[in-house]
Write a structure and sequence with these properties.
Blueprint: H1 27-96, H2 100-122, H3 126-145, E1 148-151, E2 165-170, E3 181-186, E4 188-191, E5 194-197, E6 200-204
Helix pairs in contact: 2-3
Length: 205
């Protein structure tokens, strides 16, 4: 019987055994690795850039839409305020001119009083004049309390087309009356703030 061969233990491996096999990376290989890494990151960077641009565009669009809505609401608010003011003014005018039809129908009566007073003043009927003056004053005071007032127009006033109605023009007796009122044919009246009859005048030229 032959003796069994005893295997020899492996020789210890030295930590320096592979020292000579270690070699630093070649510069060319390192540069290639960096280029490959950069190329791999290029799509990701491009994606982030596109995403940032998209978000910026969305923000700009949102800001623009906000400014448009803000301007729209400001305009609507201003229009509503104007509407309230106009409605309030029209309501006040309606209340103050509710009796406009009655007032207009009474204007010829006032004209008749004026003519009657003018004729009576030329006569010697003082008793009749006093009575008519009292009636005339009482009527005018009552109408004034309802908002009816006379548009004061006198000879020599500058003609104003906004408050005067020129029925004719005549040669002015002097240069000072050119373009001015020479005579008042019919008085004008205001009810509240509304002219219900313009004074009819003759102007000089």
């Amino acid at each position: 019987m032959q003796p069994r061969a005893v295997p020899h233990p492996p020789e210890p491996t030295s930590i320096y055994s592979n020292y000579h096999s270690l070699k630093p990376p070649h510069p060319h290989n390192e540069q290639s690795t960096l280029q490959e890494h950069h190329q791999e990151n290029q799509p990701l960077a491009h994606y982030h850039q596109l995403r940032t641009t998209h978000h910026r565009k969305q923000l700009e669009e949102a800001n623009s839409a906000f400014e448009q809505e803000k301007d729209k609401h400001l305009r609507l608010f201003a229009e509503f305020e104007n509407f309230k003011k106009r409605t309030s003014r029209e309501r006040i005018e309606l209340f103050s001119t509710a009796s406009e039809g009655v007032m207009v129908s009474l204007l010829p009566v006032l004209d008749d009083f004026d003519r009657a007073l003018s004729e009576i003043e030329k006569s010697d009927s003082a008793a009749h004049l006093e009575g008519i003056i009292l009636i005339n004053n009482k009527l005018r005071e009552n109408l004034k309390a309802k908002g009816l007032t006379i548009i004061e127009t006198n000879q020599g006033d500058i003609f104003n087309a906004d408050i005067h109605e020129a029925i004719t023009q005549i040669p002015a007796p002097n240069d000072d009356l050119k373009g001015k009122v020479i005579d008042v044919i019919e008085k004008g009246y205001v009810l509240g703030e509304k002219i219900i009859r313009f004074p009819k005048v003759v102007i000089g030229h």
